[in-house]
Design goal:
By secondary structure, this protein is mainly α. It contains 17 helices and seven strands. A three-stranded mixed β-sheet has the order 2-1-3. Strands 4-7 form a two-stranded antiparallel ribbon. Helix 15 crosses helix 17 (about 315-325).
C-alpha cells in the first residue's frame, strides 16, 4: 500500500514539474487551442496544456482518433461545471469549488414579508384607535442570522483546513484523555495527510458551515465529479487534488441533522460512479467510508440514508458495516 501511495505522489510531482517548466518557457501558449464541446458549449484550451496532463485527451488531440482529424471533441460524459473546473486547473493550478446555497435567504424574505404585512395591519388598527404606531408594535429590520459573508477570524491548521482556536484547544484536551472509537475515527479522518494541497496552496481555502441553512451539496459534488472526470481521463494530479479538497471541506463541516441530505447525495453519486476499492488504495470511497464511521449516529436518523444502503446493494452497506465493527 505504501509503495502505491509513493508512486502516485511521484507521478503527481512529475506532472507539476512538467507544468511549471512549460509555463516558464511559454511552450504551452504557442500551441493551438483545441475545442472541447460540453453540453453544447465550446471550451478552447491550449492543446499542450491538456496533452501534458492526460494521455486519453492527448490521443484525442494528437493521435489517430477522429477528434484529432476534425479538430474538436464532443465530451458526452461530463457537465459544464466540471469541465470548466478542469480548464481552470490546467491554466491556474487550482480550481474553484461549487457554491454554498444559503437556504435561509428565501425563508427570511418570506418571513420578513409576513412580518411587514402584519406590522402594517397593526399600525393601521392602532391609528384608527388614536394610538401611536410605536406604542403598539415597533418593527425592527433585523438581518438574517445566517449570512455567508460573516465569518470569524480563524487560523489554518497543519493539515490544510481552517480550524478555529477553540477547536484546537479541544483537540489538545482530547489527546490527554482516552478517545472513544468514534473520536478515534474522527481524529484519523481529520489528520489525513495531503500531497498536492501542501505543494499548491494558491487555491481558495474551504470555509466551515455556520448554520443548518447552508447547503453544501454543490460544494461536495463539485469535488467528487472532478475526481471521477480525472480518474476516467487519467489526470492523476487533479484526481489527488480533488480528493484532498473534498477531505478539507468535510473535515471542517458540521453535520447538522437538517443537512444529512448533503452527505446522502454525495454518497449516492460516488457509489454510482466509482468502482470498488482495490488493494486498500486510498480513494473516494475509502474517504467517505471513514467519514461515515464517525458520523453514523447522525446519518442513521436519515430515512434517505437508510433507503440508499438498501437500494445501493452490497458495496455501501459493506463499507458501512466495517465502520460499525470499528465502533463496537
Amino acid at each position: 500500500m505504501g509503495k502505491k501511495k509513493d508512486k502516485a505522489r511521484e507521478e503527481s510531482t512529475h506532472d507539476l514539474q512538467l507544468s511549471s517548466s512549460d509555463l516558464k518557457s511559454g511552450n504551452v501558449y504557442t500551441s493551438q487551442p483545441f475545442r472541447f464541446i460540453v453540453e453544447g458549449t465550446a471550451f478552447y484550451i491550449h492543446a499542450a496544456l491538456v496533452s501534458q496532463h492526460s494521455r486519453p485527451l492527448d490521443r484525442m488531440i494528437n493521435g489517430g482518433m477522429s477528434e484529432a482529424q476534425k479538430g474538436y471533441a464532443v465530451l458526452e460524459d461530463v457537465d459544464q461545471g466540471t469541465f470548466g473546473r478542469f480548464a481552470e486547473w490546467v491554466n491556474k493550478g487550482y480550481y474553484t469549488s461549487g457554491e454554498v446555497i444559503d437556504r435561509s435567504l428565501n425563508e427570511s424574505t418570506s418571513a420578513k414579508s409576513l412580518v411587514m404585512n402584519d406590522d402594517c395591519e397593526k399600525r393601521m388598527e392602532s391609528q384608527a384607535e388614536g394610538l401611536q404606531p410605536d406604542e403598539v408594535l415597533p418593527f425592527e429590520d433585523e438581518p438574517p442570522r445566517a449570512v455567508l459573508g460573516w465569518r470569524e477570524v480563524e487560523e489554518p491548521s497543519d493539515f490544510g483546513v481552517v480550524t478555529s482556536p477553540r477547536s484546537l484547544k479541544t483537540k489538545r484536551k482530547m489527546k490527554e484523555v482516552s478517545l472513544t472509537p468514534r473520536m478515534q475515527l474522527k481524529e484519523s479522518f481529520i489528520q489525513r495527510k495531503t500531497v498536492i494541497r501542501q505543494e499548491n496552496s494558491s487555491g481558495p481555502p474551504p470555509l466551515p458551515n455556520q448554520s443548518p441553512k447552508e447547503d453544501y451539496t454543490d460544494v461536495f459534488l463539485s469535488h467528487a465529479r472532478l475526481y471521477v472526470f480525472a480518474e476516467k481521463y487519467d489526470v492523476q494530479t487533479l484526481k489527488i487534488l480533488a480528493l484532498e479538497n473534498l477531505h478539507a471541506s468535510l473535515a471542517i463541516y458540521t453535520l447538522y441533522e437538517e443537512r444529512t441530505g448533503d452527505i446522502v447525495d454525495l454518497l449516492r453519486y460516488v457509489y454510482a460512479n466509482t468502482s470498488e476499492t482495490v488493494d486498500d488504495v486510498e480513494d473516494l470511497r475509502t474517504l467517505l467510508t471513514l467519514y461515515m464511521g464517525y458520523e453514523m449516529d447522525t446519518l442513521m436518523q436519515d430515512e434517505d440514508f437508510q433507503d440508499l444502503m438498501v437500494t445501493n446493494g452490497g458495496p455501501l452497506l459493506a463499507d458501512f458495516m466495517r465502520m460499525v465493527m470499528k465502533r463496537i
